[in-house]
């Protein structure tokens, strides 16, 4: 079964930007577009019953989708207006989609995304990729020669899902993948005799990190031979290195492993930092 690209809309400017982004990506990949809106009945509107309120919501979504269909005549979006709790509705939609695309407010190029509670929870709960798009996002940035940047950490398995998403996206856009790996000097006591031997064989820390990145990319280079790849290894915190690379990206891809706590699921600090400060769309991909 072909999985759609799904956009969550609520009528805001940022969600309409997300809908446009999702439509363009659906056209590139030859995938269907699904539009989902979660709504709740408001008892305070005494003059409007449930059916009337649902009609208002449906009319607003239909109008937004009509504009997308006019810009992309070959695209026939499916629309689902669902009465229910937004986080659960959107997380379920993400599980059924190739990716879920949401809007996020931004306050300028240096601030990035302002995530509401729904966005944070959906990212942490979703079992598939979630793309965050800022209000004001423009298609021109995708054709400006900018790279699809992906953060790589650990071994190949640790970042396989993020690398797969980055290569698939770059292939659809005929773009370059820039794979970024950040490293820091660990405390001396963290070394084991075995790890010291591996570092000696590699010629030191930086050559070791470069080899680790090269090995992680190897299967994806073989699978997508048409996609140009740039490898970037830098010393520094992962968040800072990725944010610097994001300034020249058309899309930033980061992996995430949700952490469970008493107050619910939370995303890692690197994904959290990138989401709040990147100026380009950001895809958060859960680890396999």
UniProtKB/TrEMBL annotation:
Name of the protein in its database record: Universal stress protein
Source taxon at top rank: Bacteria
Taxonomic path: Bacteria, Bacillati, Actinomycetota, Actinomycetes, Kitasatosporales
Recorded family membership: Belongs to the universal stress protein A family.
Domain UspA residues, every copy: 1-134, 155-286
SUPFAM superfamilies, per database record: Adenine nucleotide alpha hydrolases-like
A Pfam family: Usp
InterPro entries assigned: Rossmann-like_a/b/a_fold, Universal_stress_UspA, UspA
Gene source species: Streptomyces monashensis
